[in-house]
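Researcher: Quick test of sequence recovery. Tokens follow.
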């Protein structure tokens, strides 16, 4: 390969630079002024404002920069891969873009003038979805699901997006786009209250805590309305919204939980009663921490007094009277025994069929005997003369 002397190389470089400069000058003098952008400084985008738009578009944004042309050369502006509905030249440093509809997050802004282009990275974005919770069409649905609620707002897009709605930890059976301001959800089966609601659309995710609830459990009937104080009775409770599956649940009769609760369907549950005493109890059911209550739902059998001894005692009192009967309870429920209208000085539970009373002083005859959680009548007791 032929080598040049260093002086020859230096002279060659000077000639090349001179020719480039001369060509540049001739082009500026000879070409029409509207083509000078071909040899002018490259375009530059410095600012886009406003930098966001509704997903429906049709608003104007101003693109500021440099070298957009000395006259109207009809620039082309694109927001990401979407061309503006119209692009208007304003000056060598400004142009207008009428935004087309779109979705997604930040986009690059491209400006093309006479074959040259420049761009600003992530300079524009469409507004994300927004939900109007005040217009939420329905916040409670059956535990079996398959009902529909509508979510209103904005920014859902002008074409059907890939959108999803979740209630609690479960996705809607189907999420359907209706318009830029409306989405519909076919609710899945579930249970509980105060569940979070999540909306995902165009890579945006919105969450609203404690907003959604399934209908509370409702108790309507029992296979037996009364049972023994000893408990251990199997009863079937009918109702609704017990859940499409065996969620965390429990049943109470008054303040006493069933010994066991077995879910069988959304409308049926089996309870093994615990021991208890009269009077009437409310039925309370909890499914996924959501309670439902029905008043006067169940009662333990009335505790009758069938016999007592002795049949009479001294008027001075302080003697012991034994009561016999049934359904006194399987524990000491702090009974209060009465002779007539006078309470015993002391009442002692002994078993489901026996209790003791320390008699107070008295003079009456043919008195009734009863317990405070039920009145079993035993006519015939009297005080000795």
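Model:
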């Amino acid at each position: 390969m032929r080598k040049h002397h260093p002086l020859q190389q230096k002279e060659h470089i000077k000639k090349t630079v001179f020719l480039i400069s001369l060509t540049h000058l001739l082009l500026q003098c000879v070409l029409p002024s509207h083509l000078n952008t071909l040899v002018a400084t490259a375009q530059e985008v410095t600012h886009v404002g406003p930098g966001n738009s509704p997903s429906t578009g049709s608003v104007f944004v101003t693109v500021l920069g440099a070298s957009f042309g000395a006259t109207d050369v009809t620039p082309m502006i694109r927001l990401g891969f979407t061309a503006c509905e119209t692009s208007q030249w304003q000056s060598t440093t400004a142009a207008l873009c009428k935004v087309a509809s779109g979705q997604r997050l930040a986009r690059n802004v491209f400006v093309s003038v006479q074959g040259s282009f420049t761009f600003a990275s992530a300079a524009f974005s469409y507004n994300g979805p927004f939900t109007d919770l005040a217009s939420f069409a329905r916040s409670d649905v059956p535990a079996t699901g398959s009902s529909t609620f509508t979510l209103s707002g904005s920014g859902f897009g002008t074409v059907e997006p890939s959108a999803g709605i979740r209630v609690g930890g479960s996705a809607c059976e189907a999420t359907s786009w209706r318009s830029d301001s409306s989405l519909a959800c076919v609710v899945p089966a579930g249970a509980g209250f105060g569940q979070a609601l999540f909306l995902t659309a165009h890579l945006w995710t919105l969450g609203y805590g404690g907003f959604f609830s399934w209908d509370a459990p409702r108790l309507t009937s029992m296979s037996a309305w009364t049972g023994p104080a000893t408990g251990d009775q199997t009863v079937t409770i009918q109702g609704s919204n017990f859940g499409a599956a065996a969620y965390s649940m429990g049943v109470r009769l008054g303040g006493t939980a069933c010994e066991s609760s077995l879910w069988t369907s959304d409308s049926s549950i089996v309870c093994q009663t615990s021991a208890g005493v009269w009077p009437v109890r409310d039925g309370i059911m909890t499914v996924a921490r959501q309670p439902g209550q029905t008043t006067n739902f169940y009662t333990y059998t009335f505790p009758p007094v069938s016999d007592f001894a002795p049949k009479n005692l001294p008027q001075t009192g302080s003697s012991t009277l034994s009561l016999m009967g049934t359904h006194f309870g399987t524990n000491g429920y702090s009974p209060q025994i009465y002779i007539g209208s006078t309470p015993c000085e002391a009442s002692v539970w002994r078993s489901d069929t026996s209790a003791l009373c320390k008699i107070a002083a008295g003079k009456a005859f043919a008195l009734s005997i009863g317990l405070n959680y039920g009145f079993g009548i035993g006519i015939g007791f009297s005080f000795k003369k």
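Residues 6-30 form the longest helix (25 residues).
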